[in-house]
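Archive entry. Fields below.
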Amino acid sequence: MAVASTDTAIRTGNATRVLLYLVLLLFALFYLLPFGIMVLNSLKPLSEITGGNMMALPEVWTLDAWRNAWSQAQIGVEPTGLQPYFWNSIKMVVPAVAISTVLGALNGYILTKWRFRGDTILFGLMLFSCFIPFQIVLIPMARILGITGLAGSTAGLVLVHVVYGIGFSTLYFRNYYAVFPTELVRAAQIDGAGFFRIFWRIMLPSSGPITVVCVIWQFTNIWNDFLFGASFADFDSQPMTVALNNLVNSSTGVKEYNVHFAGAIYAALPTLLVYIVAGRYFVRGLMSGSVKG
Amino acid sequence: MAQAAGGADFRTRLQHLIPKIVLAPSLAMVLVFVYGFILFTIYLSFTDSRILPSFNLVGFENYVKLFKLSHWSIAITNLGVFAFLYISICTVIGLFLAIFLDQKIRGEGMLRPIYLYPMALSFIVTGTAWKWLLDPGIGIEHTMHLWGWESFAFDWIKNRDYAIYTVVLAAVWQTSGFVMAMFLAGLRGIDNEILKAAQMDGASNWNLYRRIILPQLRPAFLSAFVILSHLAVKSYDLVIALTGGGPGRATELPATFMYSYTFSRNQMGIGASSAVIMLMTIAAIMVPYLYAELREKK
Amino acid sequence: MSFLKIENVTKSYGAVEVLHQVDIDVEEGEFLVLVGPSGCGKSTLLNMIAGLEEISSGEMSIKGQVMNGVHPSKRNIAMVFQSYALYPNMTVAQNITFGLEMHNVPKPERDAAMNKVADMLQITQLLSRKPGQLSGGQRQRVAMGRALVRNPDVFLFDEPLSNLDAKLRVDMRTEIKKLHQRLGTTIVYVTHDQIEAMTLSTRIAVMNGGYIQQLGTPKEIYDNPANIFVASFMGSPSMNLLAATLRSDGARTAVEITDWEGKPVVLPLMEAITDVSRKDGDRVILGIRPEALTDPDGADRNARNVVTVSNRIDVTEPAGSDTFVTTVLAGGDVVGRMRADAAVVPGQTCDFAVNMDKAVLFDPETEMRIR
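PREDICTED_STRUCTURE:
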């Protein structure tokens, strides 16, 4: 749907075009600079940041801040750096993304190809759950996690992210399968394939694009989550975002800006990487969250 | 719908059941963890829960207290200011960038991802970057001074009256590129022949946009509004990372209010009632929108 | 006992009945076409035969076995879909054998069956391709191959030719007819194209509004339509329907219409109508097909009752093989079909030969045929 044709019927004069490019470049700068100079300054020793100009290139190029942020910075009680939290996030994100995507695919398949009375209402209920302010579920969720013994564990966070992620993954697959020809399913039924076989042999092989979209979306969302991590994790299971916030906003000691920056970049790296590799799909995912399929 | 005529064989009946069985766990999760929890929180908002949930009903006491708290009225006012500016600035920037990018721009393929990448970042990362840029002692103000513009002052983040605008700035930085992408997709979806016809009719570029193109972008405007407004109400991480709600209470939002009242100040009843208000705000926007979207598809 | 029996079958969605009391008996080897405008219920009926939609009431049986509630794959039917419904991720060969695989047919047998079918349909060279790499006509063949390989009791076709361009459609039509003649399998075929219905079928069921309007051989349907709907739906250009008055003196019957100037014209009928309640002066609707309204030289020589009427020509449409002319009779436009080289000029008056052998009468109120 996006970016299909760049052929526009509108013509503009030369002076206007110069202005156009100027505005567009200015905005490019606006989006690039904050993260760009953060990267630049993470390569400086602290003295150059506190004493110097943030726009200046480093006089001494150093990876100390990066090493420090990864393995030495004091975040919890121990000076462990962000490393363990990075792995916490990975351990949380991978199963949560996998489970919510599989469930979303099955739900989307059922809601489009095995329709029953009331299915649209059920879908509406799932869809609305994507948009609720999560504050409304924090208190009971904390209780349930406490009762089930999942509080403070990675498993608990996985559960939370799956529960609040299936709305979106169902949305993606439903919209995708809605335009998938139902005649194929009927042909397979006549051929003698059942529910799971049709899913496995007919639907899934054609679901590559939407799976990528869904995985990227869930990955970005869950990796970047802060509220649930801050509410339900303890020191051993804290995800990266929470650890980064603790690092940056800890009030004790000297503010080691370069270490903060390096930490922020570590936290941003996985999602940025995904974005660079599969940015096209990322845009499509953002879009289908809003525009009907 | 099935008055399953007599002899449906086992396999056929099973085939009708399997989809419902497979859907059941997801449905149960959503019903319990979303709607059940919503009901539970609504219930709590009518109780005298403090540090732990209590089941002692007190009527609307929490809501009455809530709306008497200056802390809450600050949070609401801030949300109003924040949401209004965030939504309108994002829409304006997004719309103009999309229109500009739609003029056969060379290097569009380079610019688009640059505009969009902030959306991939965590609000904590965004907050970390902007907190430092906005810090007058070390960020932009400091740099301007070093460059010789001694009178330049940009200390909003330390200023109670202006701090909320820094939250707007960082949030706009993060999301406006996404709004651009939505509008761009809308623009690309408009039939070129209509534009050519309008040009034949002698419409100027200005009129072309005002009379032909913008009206056709209505769905994009609506989607942008819905997405942005729900993001605004949910905003939490950015405030925590950027200002921590300060200086003082200058950047408190309902989301931060709810968290601190529930978990730090042990006023769970009041926290729950504030969450209910947040939910109602979002529902007022989302429910009509989803209803219309799902109806159309039928 | 008939091969495929549809007895008193209805379909309702909630309180809305969309298919009313359908009764059709199909003999083994028949080629039944369900034809009608979109929304007439023909596809719903086909899907019910396939088992893709449930039967609300009534009974459907194949070879004497009741099929209500039986899973589609257990009815020993095969279906060709409008979009062909080829599995995009599988090769042509996998598409064709998927059904056999699902029925646990061993691989050697599957391959043998596939090769036979591929040979018959001349798609052997396509077997390793994916559907995306095929042209419309090739996809159509593969879809038929997938149905054939199952060796079913009944073939179901759901508008299989509607996605093809005009020329290919005619070729494939012939191909399907050949296939039916060769295999002799029972076929139920849905289309909205009356020419397909006429050319392919051994019997036609014309449907409208969820009712079977008429069930009969192509000739019966064309020459003896049961009502105005069937008369105007079948045939192209469609049958001319003229407001007429019945003239009867006891022995002979005629209808009176007006010509382009409004002067009365009396057209005698070949046989007196048997319906005794019809009297002199009754309003009726006269149906005349364009080919029964020709130039005198083009009139059917075997016709017994040809009346010549002089009328002004308004529009001529040369179509190569014929020339269609529009003229005004009984206050409305009527279309006649002349020989290609008939000397007709718009605005001039010429003689029309009206073949009253083929004329039919309808009741203007009930729209039913008057016999």
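CURATOR_NOTE: The first helix of chain C runs from residue 42 to 50.
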